[in-house]
Specification:
heterodimer; A: mainly alpha; 0% strand; B: alpha/beta; Rossmann fold; six-stranded mixed sheet; four-stranded antiparallel sheet; 8 helices; 10 strands; globular
């Protein structure tokens, strides 16, 4: 009902392509796929811009309603996922880092330990795995919750009450998920590095804890911390925006919610990988 | 479809085409010209799928008209500007079935619009929510979620949620649909009280527009009647004029045998 209306990014004139019968020729099939891709990019792009506008202009509005929602999202996407993250980071530490430490010490290459750990865990695996785990648990819940609300007409009820659905439903998820992915990434990295050393210690690798953490500290730069923060927050924003888009953007029927969920998860994974690749280019450029 | 009145029209439509809320390509009503004045009590009848819900949704500003002009309190609809939101909130919409927020309790559902718009201090908001719960006889279900409520109670929560914003015009989508005789009587009694001025709204009269699939319960309550049929909005007149109407569908809706049968 205001600028954040869920109808602002719908393009019914163009969306007929999504429901048209199967094309007769293979070229048409490819063409339709390309058009669908472009429409999806257009829709998600428009939704992202609307969401960012609402985040920057309305963050402090109706705090009595939106702040508890942000806390709820932090709890759901962050605090309640900690046990799963601790388990996964322990597993990663044992399986990957422990083996890397063990092999590096065998070939007397522990001097590279810090660089490899920072490169693999801090820059790449930590943020990306965290994002994928949050996506698998909270992202799917987002699409199902919002898709069901949309199918049951609750979004129209919000609009009828003058409540901006983007402000009430999307903003808390974007803010909460960005902060959650960032926090979980930090916990994930710390726990992985510690558990990796523990695994190496159990294998009698001749490496003192002081040397191990000194190597890590020497390899980390301020840029790693800055990019880690930006990257993990952007992963959270991308997951929240794409899952909310698929839950809210199109008029859904209940039976279409599962299809929307599958599409949202696939596109979120692709978006995270593309973002990750962009940050690799940033690292290489710097 | 003009109904002369001493008040300026609250709702004024000229040549409006109404689209379907779930299908933007479809047009469910055409050439709709309609004026609602303060103090009117309209009942719009029609069979299933004749566009009653879509008409109310468009009237509430949930979608723009497909054609023609529509003014609400003198403002061209739909209203997108944030500073005109207060004007739009002078009109409330009660959906068929309530369309409650399934993850909120009954109390939270009713309190949400008050908290969101920060219209009153928290204590005053809580007092108004309590008053709404009492008015709707929902005090035993305040902490229940909508899934645990029957259809009648869900409708009441939907009505309470619309009333806490103290609208001047209330649109009700099929309020008596699926209710038994006793519950229908409760709703009609409350509609009468709201129309005449209820203490919950400080005695201020509410203009009512309701849709229905059966005209019989409304005959002694509403002031104006209309019919949706074949994508057309037809003004039937006042209560006294209903009996003389020869339209077959109107006879059916009044449960009278059609002429010649």
């Amino acid at each position: 009902m205001d600028d954040g209306s869920t109808r602002a990014y719908e393009a019914p004139q163009a969306r007929f392509i999504l429901h048209a019968p199967a094309p007769p020729a293979y070229a048409n099939f490819i063409g339709r796929k390309v058009l669908r891709l472009l429409l999806t990019i257009q829709g998600i792009g428009a939704f992202t811009l609307i969401t960012l506008a609402v985040v920057f202009t309305k963050l402090r509005n109706a705090r009595e309603v939106t702040f508890p929602q942000i806390v709820r999202e932090l709890s759901r996407s962050g605090v309640r996922m900690l046990p799963m993250f601790l388990f996964m980071s322990l597993a990663l530490g044992l399986v990957v880092i422990g083996q890397a430490v063990s092999w590096l010490s065998r070939v007397n290459a522990t001097g590279f330990l810090g660089s490899i750990m920072v490169l693999v865990v801090v820059r790449e695996l930590g943020p990306l795995l965290t994002a994928l785990l949050v996506l698998s648990r909270s992202g799917t819940a987002n699409v199902i919750e919002l898709g069901t609300s949309r199918a049951l007409g609750e979004i129209e009820a919000l609009e009828a009450l003058g409540i901006d659905p983007i402000h009430y439903l999307v903003l808390p998820r974007v803010v909460g998920m960005a902060l959650s992915v960032f926090s979980l990434t930090v916990y994930f990295i710390i726990c992985s590095l510690v558990s990796g050393y523990l695994w190496a210690f159990l294998r009698d690798v001749p490496l003192q804890p002081g040397d191990y953490f000194r190597e890590l500290a020497h390899s980390l730069t301020w840029l790693d911390f800055a990019i880690l923060a930006v990257k993990s927050c952007l992963f959270g924003v991308a997951i929240a925006v794409i899952t909310c888009y698929h839950g809210l953007a199109q008029p859904l029927r209940l039976e279409e919610v599962s299809r929307a969920t599958v599409g949202a998860i696939a596109q979120s994974v692709i978006a995270c990988v593309i973002l990750d690749a962009i940050f690799v280019l940033v690292y290489l450029a710097i | 479809m003009d109904t002369a009145g001493e008040h300026p029209p609250i709702i004024e439509m000229h040549g409006v085409a109404v689209g379907a809320l779930r299908d933007f390509q479809a047009v469910v009503l055409e050439g709709l010209s309609w004026k609602v004045h303060a103090g009117d009590f309209w009942v719009i009848a029609g069979m299933h799928n004749t566009g009653k819900s879509d008409l109310l949704a468009m009237t509430a500003g949930l979608m723009p008209p497909q054609g023609g002009t529509y003014h609400l309190f003198g403002n061209e609809m739909p209203i997108f500007e944030g500073h005109l939101l207060a004007e739009r909130l002078r009109l409330g919409l009660v959906f068929d079935g309530g369309r409650l927020f399934h993850d909120l309790t009954v109390r939270q559902n009713i309190a949400l619009p008050l908290q969101y718009h920060e219209k009153f201090p928290p204590a005053e908001s809580a007092r108004r929510v309590d008053a709404a719960l009492q008015l709707m006889e929902l005090t035993d279900w305040t902490e229940s979620t909508p899934g645990n409520l029957g259809r009648n109670l869900q409708k009441r929560v939907g009505l309470a949620r619309a009333l806490v914003l103290q609208p001047e015009v209330l649109l009700l989508d099929n309020p008596l649909g699926g209710l038994d005789f006793r519950q229908s009587a409760w709703w009609l009694n409350l509609m009468d009280q709201l129309w005449k001025g209820h203490p919950f709204l400080e005695g201020r009269r509410v203009t009512l527009v309701a849709t229905a699939e059966d005209l019989r319960p409304w005959r002694r309550h509403a002031t104006h009647f209309a019919l949706l049929q074949n994508k057309r909005f037809t003004f039937l007149g006042r209560e006294s004029e209903l009996s003389g109407n020869t339209d077959v569908l109107v006879k059916e809706l009044l449960a009278e045998p059609p002429p010649g049968s």
